Amino acid sequence: MDDKTRLAAGIAKQLQGLTYDDKRLAEIAAEVEVLNEAVRKAANQRLTFDDDPAAFASVLAKEAK
Amino acid sequence: MINDDLALRDLSEVADAIAAGRITSVQATEACLERIAVWQPRTNAFLRLNKEKALEQARAMDKELAAGQRRGPLHGVPMAHKDMYYRADEISTGGSAIRHNWVAPVTSTVLQKLDAAGVVELGFLNMAEFAAGPTGHNVHHGHCRNPWDDKRVTGGSSSGSGASVAARMVYGALGSDTGGSIRLPASACGVVGMKATYGRVSRAGAVARSWTLDHVGPLTRTVRDNARMLSIVAGHDPDDSTTSEKPVPDYEALLDGGVRGLKIGFALPDALVPVDPQIGAAVQAAADALGNLGAVIAPATMPDFTALYRAAEVIVKCEAAAMHRPWMEADAPYANQVRTRMEAGFFIPATQYIDALRLRAHFVREFLARAMDGVDAVILPAIPFPVPTIEETDVEASGGPATLSMVARFTGLTRPFNTLGLPALSVPCGFDGNGAPIGLQLIGRPFDEGLLYRIGHAYQGATDHHRKVPT
Fold first, then answer.
1. Which residue range forms the structural domain that includes residue A15?
2. Catalytic residue flag (residue B263)
3. Rounded to an integer, what distance in angstroms lies between the CA atom of residue B225 and that of residue B460?
4. Active site residue B181
5. Annotated catalytic residue: which of B25, B82, B158, B317?
6. Which residues 6+ apart lie within 8 Å of B94 measured at CB?
7. CATH code 3.90.1300.10 for B2-307+338-467
8. Looking at B157, B161, B176, B210, which residue is catalytic?
9. Segments in chain B below pLDDT 70
10. Which residues contact B181 (CB under 8 A, 6 or more apart)?
């Protein structure tokens, strides 16, 4: 079991109260890594302290035709 | 034969004929029921058919009209909807086994609006389990099958909506779209599907897949029909705080402006997979047709779809995991592919989920500033490859890497627009080498559904893809 799978196992058992076998934990760890990296990369390029999730609806309203 | 002719007419034509007294709602309903008797065994589009109740409603609509009362522009028109729109005191499965006998406590806002407009409800339609799946597979209720070729998928998750409209069993149907679930079945079944701007249509009383990415919308045979249906279901709803207070136009009244002078961006972007040459040629031909009608077609610069796609995945997995947790912990009977698609949501840090939400405003501004700079709308394919077979996309039966990869690629060109929340209209634009439909997508600025309908209507006036009926 690699470090990421071990971490996933810890999250599952200690934080979420869920049980998965090692094979599934490895798959989940790989999937989460891809998703996290994509969001982190996009966030590092764009987000600042003042960015608010609710700005999405405001932008749609302000840019409305 | 007479009834079959009636079933083949468009929603708006039938609605107007009922209003004018040329036909009755009962006749239209009987025509649909006759089509259903023939096509249901071939498509499995309906989960529940309420024949007697529909006829009773139709008789009531005819009686009201005879007394001079027309409820609205859909008075007496038979429809059916994805089995995720609650109707009080009736079963609502959400396409699942978990809720196979669950009775809804309320009626969804959109069904209330259709009731008020005079719609006759034939029943409820097949769908992917809990709206999770882009193909139309459903291990609990049976797969929905494409009317053009019953070995091929319908697209999902609004599988029954696409199949029933395409096979002329109903005049219109509601679907929902979290990653493409209106546009994919519209494309694969050869009908029109609108995912309106986020906040344009209420989600209250509808099964959620992801609260922040779900869009409710209509599937119909023509753009005109779709415009009429959206005009009815759109609008602010106190029961859905995310709905916009922006007034709803009469979309049907905006159809006839033509496209002369409009500038339309055109793109065949790679999103997880390159666009198949057949699909690219069909969408290019559609762009050419719009050019011949007077639109200016220009290349559009698309953003990095992968970032938009991954942000949507983070959001949907986290929200779905949260809402399904009690059933997942109880080992409730999900299809494996439905369960496994949610599990990562338990492991994604909350900060990543929040950042994905915070990124959406940036993504929208960037898309409008770049892809839509100087253009009124953008045209691109809905599904980047020909409609595959049920067998080759059956993750449950053969969940190998190739199958999983193909299923994931289904939403490559649709899911990014759920992240953006922009209006997206799917319109039939041809047929692939297997005889299955191809759909194009039109993307607009926020709340510019009227312009997309205008472009789609002009295109349908110059082409006949939407007039072809599966036999």
1. 3-62
2. no
3. 12
4. yes
5. B82
6. B83, B84, B127, B129, B130, B131, B207
7. yes
8. B157
9. 1-3, 271-272, 399
10. B128, B131, B134, B156, B157, B158, B175, B209
pLDDT of residue B80: 98
Among A28, A39, A65, whose Cβ lies nearest the Cβ of B310? A39
Radius of gyration of chain A (CA): 18
SS (H, E, C) B383-452: CCCCCCECHHHCCCCCCCHHHHHHHHHCCCCCHHHHHHCCCEEEEEEEECCCCCEEEEEEEECCCCHHHH
Domain count, chain A: 1
The answer to whether the beta carbons of residues B250 and B257 sit under 8 Å apart is no
pLDDT at B311: 98
What confidence score (pLDDT) does residue B3 get? 66
Q: Give the minimum alpha-carbon distance from A52 to chain B in angstroms, rounded to a whole number.
A: 6
**Burial, B241: exposed, middle or buried (Cβ in 10 Å; 0-12, 13-18, 19+)?**
exposed
Q: Is the pTM of this model over 0.90?
A: yes
Q: B361 to chain A nearest CA, in Å?
A: 4
What integer pLDDT is reported at residue B407 of this predicted model? 82
B435: which 2 tokens? 């005889």
pLDDT at B1: 42
Whether omega before B158 lies within 30 degrees of 0, making that bond cis, reads no
What pLDDT score was predicted for residue B298? Answer: 96
Q: Is residue A6 classed exposed, middle or buried when 0-12, 13-18 and 19+ CB atoms within 10 A define those classes?
A: middle
Tokens of B44: 């499995």
Chain A residues within 8 A of B446 when measuring between CB atoms: 59-61, 63-65
What pLDDT is recorded for position A1? 83
**Percent composition of chain A: helix, strand, coil (DSSP 3-state, to 5):** 70, 0, 30
Helix (H) or strand (E) holding B322: helix B305-329
Q: How close does chain B come to A21, measured CA to CA in Å?
A: 13
- Cα B413 to Cα B172: distance, rounded to the nearest angstrom: 24
Spatial distance between the Cα atoms of B265 and B269, rounded to a whole number of angstroms: 12
- ipTM of the predicted structure? 0.98
Q: What pLDDT digit, counting tens, does each position of B273-289 carry? A: 789 999 999 999 999 99
Q: Does B25 participate in catalysis according to the annotation?
A: no
Q: How high does pLDDT run on average in chain B?
A: 96
Best interface-test mutation with A: which of B346, B372, B452 has the largest number of A CBs within 10 A? B346
